[in-house]
Amino acid sequence: MSRTDYDLLLRQRILEKEQTAMLQGQLLKAELRSMHEQFRPVNMLKKAWKDVVNSPEIKTNAVDSLIGFSAGFLVKKLVNLTGKGPLRNIAGTVLEWIVALKATKNADQIKSAGASLLENVLSKKESRF
Question: 100 near 69, Cβ under 8 Å?
Answer without folding.
Answer: yes
